[in-house]
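Catalogue entry: protein

Sequence with per-residue C-alpha cells
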Amino acid sequence: MADFVGSVDQGTTSTRFMIFDHGGNEIAKHQLEHEQILPQAGWVEHNPVEVWERTSAVIMTALGQSKLSASDLAALGITNQRETTVVWDKNTGRPYYNAIVWQDTRTDRIASKLEREGKGDVIRQKAGLPPATYFSGGKVQWILENVDGVREAAERGDAIFGNMDTWVLWNLTGGTRGGKHITDVTNASRTMLMNLETLDWDEELLGFFDIPRAMLPEIRPSSDPDLYGMTTETGPLSGEIPVCGDLGDQQAATVGQVCFAPGEAKNTYGTGNFMLLNTGTEIVHSQHGLLPTPAYKFGDDPAVFALEGAIPVTGSAVQWLRDQLGIISGAAETETLARQVPDSGGMVFVPAFSGLFSPYWRSDARGAIVGISRFNTNAHLARATLESMCWQTKDVADAMEKDSGVPVEALRVDGGVTNNDLAMQIQADVLGVPVYKPVVAETTALGAAYAAGYAVGFWNSQEEMRENWLEDKRWEPQWSDDQREAGLEQWHKAVERTFGWVDVD
C-alpha cells in the first residue's frame, strides 16, 4: 500500500490540500484563497469554477513541492464548508449561479414562512434543524425560483445540487465524463432535507421546499470501503486514486480530534466556531438551541451523532478588522494589538453579521459594538473581537451542559485562531476549564484523511488513530468565578441589544 493519504479541505475563504503519513503527521500542504463575492447586504457568494480551479492548483502544487506523485496516495478524502449550495448542469459542468454561502441571509423570508405555516416543528423533528438561512434547502429553493431556466432543467434531470463536497467530488471523479454525484450523511444532514432516523432524503421535507428528488446526490457513509469513485486523468491527479472519505468540516474536525467516545467535545476556530459533543449512536434533540447532527458514519457501522453549537462569525470578525476596517494587515496582528490593553475597556462586540445561530437562532439580529466611550481605541476593539469568540463558545458550552447533563471539563481546540495565545487564554478564562491544542492543529483535513484511510485499511482501527493525538499546548483558566460571572452578564446584555434589528416577514 502507498505510504500517504491526501485530503482536500475546501473552506469558506480558501482551499487547501494536505498529505499525511500513518502517524497523522503533515507531509505537505498548499493553500489558496478564493474571492468573497458580496453582491448586496446579507448576500455572500463564491464562484464554484474558481473554487474548483483552486482545488486543482493546490493538489498539484502540494504534490510537486513534496516531490510525491498521485501513486504515493493510498486514498483521498474531502472535507468542506457545509451548507454552501451549488446547482449545476450535469451535461456541461457549468453552475447555473454562484455558490450561495452558508453565511448568506437572502432566504430569511423562506425560513420565516416555514415557521408561520407550522412546518418548522416538522423540520426540527425530522432533520434536527430549525428553519434558518444557514442551511442548504432554502438556498436550493431560492435558485429554483429566481434563476431563469433552472426549474425546467431540474425537472428534465439536467440541474443537480450539492454542497461543496459534492461539487469537488463530482469534478475529481470525472465531471461531465461520469463524475459521481454523491454526498455523505454529515453534509446531507445540513440541508433540512434529510431524515435523521433514516439517513435518507425525506419526501415531506422535499415537498416543503418544492425540490425535485432527482437533483439530490446519493447519500453514502463518511468513510466508505465501497469507494465513491476513482480520480481520473481529467482532474489534477494523474492516475486512479480511491476517493472514499467525505465529511463536513466540523464533523471532520471531530474525527481529526479523535472524539470517538460519548462525552468527548471539540471546538474549531475558523470562519466561525463550531463545537461538537459526541452523543454516541443516540440522537439527542436539544432543548437549548443546539443541533443534533451525525458526527460520522464509518462503513456499515451505525452512525455516531453529536450535539453541535454553530457560531457563524468568529475568525471572519478578524477578517473584517483587516479587510473592511483596515486596522490590521494580518490576523497575527490581532494578538499584538489586543495585548496593548489589559481588557476591552468596557467595550463588547457581538459580531452577528448573519444573525445569531446557537443557542439563540435569531435571524433578526445584527452586529453591534456597545459600551463605547472616548477612552476606547483600536486595541480595545481587537481585544473585544477575541473575547466575542470566547463568550459565544461559553454560551454553547452552557447549552451543551443543560442538554446532556454533563459539564465540559476540558476542551480540545483546533483551527487557525488557536495560534493566538491570548485568544486561547481568554477562552480558558471564560470557560473555567483547561483548553488543549494538538500537535497537528489542522484536524479538519486530518479527519477527512482518517475517513479515507480507514476505508482502505491504511488505518485499521479507531484506536490506531487515537494513538496519533498528541498535546502541543494547554491553557489553564486564571479568572476568578466573580470575574467570569460579571463578564458573562455583560456579554448577555450586549447580545440582547442585537435582537430585532432586521424586520423578518
